[in-house]
Task: inverse folding
């Protein structure tokens, strides 16, 4: 494996940890969902899979499921979000669009969280596709400005 692959893998894992810790600080319940966590046997034995298209779907499983620790008081239901986390050194609309399209194909209601050295971005793949790859900064209703600032500093300490 190349050094670039290893560096990018580690940056992605750091972004996932930042996402998980940042959302937990805002009283979100955060559950790991990606195939490397839920399907570890398959990820370890992927070269032995006899039906590769099934593996492609499993491989594209988003990283997390999140829900807020509060019920909708009227309906007594919780909002649940499926989230794919990415690290990008630069926020490029064409790359964001490509990722959104990839997830929309198999996981229509996925949200994309992108950690960059300059900030955090978050949006549904449908909205990202409709806006041709543009993604909004993570709103303070999801995670406060203070927590975002704190975790951005931590991200940059590890990435640089």
Result:
């Amino acid at each position: 494996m190349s050094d670039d692959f290893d560096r990018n893998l580690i940056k992605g894992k750091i972004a996932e940890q930042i996402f998980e810790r940042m959302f937990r600080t805002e009283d979100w319940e955060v559950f790991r969902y990606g195939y490397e966590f839920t399907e570890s046997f398959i990820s370890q034995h992927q070269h032995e899979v006899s039906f590769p298209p099934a593996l492609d779907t499993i491989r594209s499983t988003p990283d997390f499921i999140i829900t807020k620790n509060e019920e909708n008081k009227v309906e007594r239901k919780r909002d649940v979000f499926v989230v794919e986390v990415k690290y990008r050194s630069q926020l490029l609309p064409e790359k964001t669009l490509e990722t959104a399209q990839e997830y929309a194909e198999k996981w229509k209601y996925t949200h994309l969280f992108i950690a960059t050295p300059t900030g955090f971005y978050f949006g549904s793949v449908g909205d990202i596709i409709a806006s041709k790859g543009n993604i909004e900064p993570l709103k303070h209703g999801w995670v406060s400005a203070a927590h975002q600032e704190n975790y951005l500093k931590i991200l940059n300490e590890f990435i640089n």
The CA atoms of residues 42 and 48 lie 9 Å apart. DSSP finds seven helices and five strands in the chain. Residues 3-159 form one domain. The beta strands are 28-32, 64-68, 80-87, 110-116, 119-124.
